[in-house]
Design a protein that fits this description.
PyrdxlP-dep_Trfase_small; EC 4.4.1.1; 5-stranded mixed β-sheet; 404 residues; 7-stranded mixed β-sheet; binds pyridoxal-5'-phosphate; PyrdxlP-dep_Trfase; 38% helix; Aspartate Aminotransferase, domain 2
């Protein structure tokens, strides 16, 4: 196809310009500014082996997936991006690219589904994962010569928002010829670009910030290496865990406002975190955007303008009961799992997203029964802060009345 695929977008442009224009060509036949959704599963050929355009069969590639992948590659400062049917499918494909007998070193605080895949699926195929709560210090010792092939980082961690210095870990891994993967779901490409800090592959659950409207399940991996492109796109097609053209189109539409949403979510989370921190009913606040965060220096080095993103967690006075009541009493924050949408959500990790982790392991990672996780959306900061404070007052009072 000779159409101008990038619609004037070039990698030297800034984030917002790329978010709107990268991978967003005008339709070459009608001039439509927004690409049509190509639902066709198959594409006509003029003679055997000569398709009319670029496409043959939709699992292998289709225009909407191509457009979305091109946009994500631009935003993550990558040469390539590949989209999958979920964040979990993305993780699975990266792990399946390893030969049986391979070893992986991972941070302990990974997304629950990632932990499940590492321990219950990858292990069944001969790939074993060692977890470390302090990977910056431990990575060198945990590397097994000739066996370790991958280091897996998730920063910030979920739900305590601890940060990992990507550059530090990558320097050690690369000395041993080992690839570094960063799950960047919580920060989104607007706040953090892991490839700029030495990561080899960045992965996202597009379900969260990139789509941003809580209506698409999707994943993406971005990277620069030509050999990774060959291997991972082979697996994308061979395994077939690919998103539909409709989902690619929706996620691409969501991505065009990522910079606006991420800035607003950061403003809102900062405001809520500061209000919570000032309350006598709060034992601790975990938010990388404020100076009390133990890894604030990493946030300043690794995040755009030291931004903290939209996620925070805090420990409420009054134990598990107060935590549960808080999430019932909020009116703007909806009690629900997931994150990264325009609407604000809250949940109690120990009873919901992290309930599957044994209590002692959970608490060692800072996930106490009184911890509440909040995903700040793009409503107004005043309303979110007022909502959090009223729910806090009510929940703490109610938990005291009936005997904690
Ligand atoms: C949600 C999530 C995933 C999994 O993504 P799905 O799209 O739900 O499969 C992976 N990593 C992180 C950090 C997540 O939040």
């Amino acid at each position: 196809m000779t159409a101008d695929k990038t619609n004037g977008a070039s990698h030297s442009q800034n984030f917002g310009t790329l978010a709107v224009h990268a991978g967003a060509p005008h339709d070459p036949t009608t001039g439509a500014v927004i690409a049509p959704i190509s639902l066709s599963t198959t594409y006509a050929q003029t003679s055997v082996g000569n398709p009319v355009g670029l496409y043959e069969y939709t699992r292998s590639s289709n225009p909407n997936r191509d457009n979305f992948e091109e946009a994500v590659a631009a935003l993550e400062h990558a040469k390539y991006a590949l989209a999958f049917s979920s964040g979990s499918a993305t993780t699975a494909v990266v792990l399946q690219s390893l030969a049986a007998g391979s070893h992986v070193v991972s941070v302990s605080d990974v997304y629950g589904g990632t932990h499940r895949y590492f321990t219950k699926v990858a292990s069944a195929h001969g790939v074993h994962v060692t977890f470390s709560p302090t990977i910056e210090q431990d990575v060198e010792d945990l590397i097994r010569p000739n066996e370790t092939k991958l280091v897996w980082i998730e920063t910030p961690s979920n739900p305590t928002l601890g940060l990992v210095d990507i550059e530090k870990v990558a320097a050690v891994a690369h000395r041993h010829g080992i690839l570094v993967v960063v799950d960047n779901t919580f920060m989104s490409p607007y706040v953090q670009n892991p490839l700029d800090h030495g990561a080899d592959i960045v992965v996202h659950s597009v379900t969260k910030y990139i789509n941003g409207h809580s209506d698409v399940l999707m994943g993406v991996a971005a990277f620069n290496s030509d050999s990774l492109k060959e291997r991972l796109s082979f697996l994308q097609n061979a395994i077939g865990a690919v998103p539909s053209p409709f989902d690619c189109w929706l996620a691409h539409r969501g991505l065009k406002t990522l910079h606006l949403r991420a800035r607003e979510a950061t403003t809102n989370a900062t405001s809520v975190a500061k209000a919570l921190e000032a309350s006598p009913h709060v034992l601790a606040v975990n938010y990388p955007g404020i100076d009390s965060h133990p890894h604030r220096a990493i946030a300043i080095k690794q995040h755009r303008n030291g931004m903290g993103g939209g996620m925070l967690s805090f420990r409420i006075q009054g134990g598990q009961k107060a935590a549960h009541l808080f999430c019932q009493y909020t009116k703007v924050f909806t009690l629900a799992e997931s994150l990264g949408g325009v609407e604000s959500l809250c949940e109690v990790p120990s009873s919901m997203t992290h309930a599957g982790i044994p209590k002692d392991q959970r608490e060692a990672a800072g996930v106490f029964d009184d911890l509440v996780r909040m995903s700040c959306g793009v409503e107004d900061a005043e309303d979110l802060t007022a909502d959090a404070l009223q729910a806090l007052e009510k929940a703490v009072a109610a938990s005291q009345q009936n005997g904690a």
